[in-house]
Model the fold of this input.
Amino acid sequence: MKKIIVLLMVLFFSLTSCSRSRISSVARMDLFNLGIGPSEDQINLYELVGKSNQTSLAMRDGLFYISDTAGDKIVRYNSYGDLLFVIYNEETNPPPITLRRGIDEEGMVTRWSIPYPLREPGVITVDSRKHIYVADKVGEDRRSFDAEEDALLDNVVLHFNESGRFVNFLGQEGIGGKPFPRISGIYASRDDEIAVICLLISGWNIYWFNADGALLFFVHLQDDSIPMSPEQADYAEVDTVAAAPDDRKLFFKVDYYRDENNNSMAIPESSLIWIINVETGAYNEPMRVPFFEYTTMENDKKITQKLPYAMLGVIRNSRVFLYFPIDGGYSLLVLTAGSREQRLGFIQIKNDELEYNTFNLSAEGILSGLLATEREARLVWWRTERLMGEVNL
Done:
């Protein structure tokens, strides 16, 4: 979650009208803390000269993977906070002190480090084999500009195996292909297929690969071809595009707005989540997303206002998690495709943990978070069984 979400949280601290007694508070478990800095067991969050912070978190089977943008490294921890391995750029990192360099073929070493020339690692995902896929930048000599898409092609997806050894890289055509436009998301789907989501000025490109790196499907979402809302709306804005973890489907949330009496501030009209079958290109019936409502006082009168939730991710069985920043944390909303069922929840985040937040939603619905203060980063998670109730994840 980027800084803009933190600013929104501050803005709406006093605005929410949702009573926590009406929603389920999801129990938070604090797992371990990391220091801020350049050492192998620290996260170098804030030294971002010439970089955009895309520090990213993935959790798979109780193991945590952090892509440290500023630190030019990828680390793997267990849930007790033990550092298991680090992939690091030798030119920008001090030599690891506590980890053995390299790993033998028998894999007898339990904690090790592997050098690799990472440039600016960003969003990360992990498949069922514990293979790592992470976005990274290419060198200037490999960058190009796509005039038709009006996009700089400078991203690739690096593929490492379960031990952290480099396997290959993915480009637009597959293994060794030309660089992608800006990558905003990477998702591991069924059969270890990988979906790469790229954000363009005019829309989104989605590349869907099999476990061997072959391109299976390509989807282009053009802004001017977004399905319109049944209600009257003047324009639409895509919030997020995400891939299902258990099906060949894309979920993209669209917020629709109208201009009222030439008001400079757009009025939210509706929010819909559209579902695309990537094999056929067909759209499913959209999911309607209610607004988050809050109250303000104007001339001693309570005025109810509404803003759209943001989409956090998709879990198994087409269940979508959405969130909105409120006092002391986030309000969660869970919707299920093809059902009118709605579940509301609340997750706690302390005021001193707002320096930087990034989250990961597992296929089973476990929400993990890296919450940064000025001095440390806290790894936490929220188990959503209570929120989901009798729903079987």
The chain has a mean pLDDT of 88.
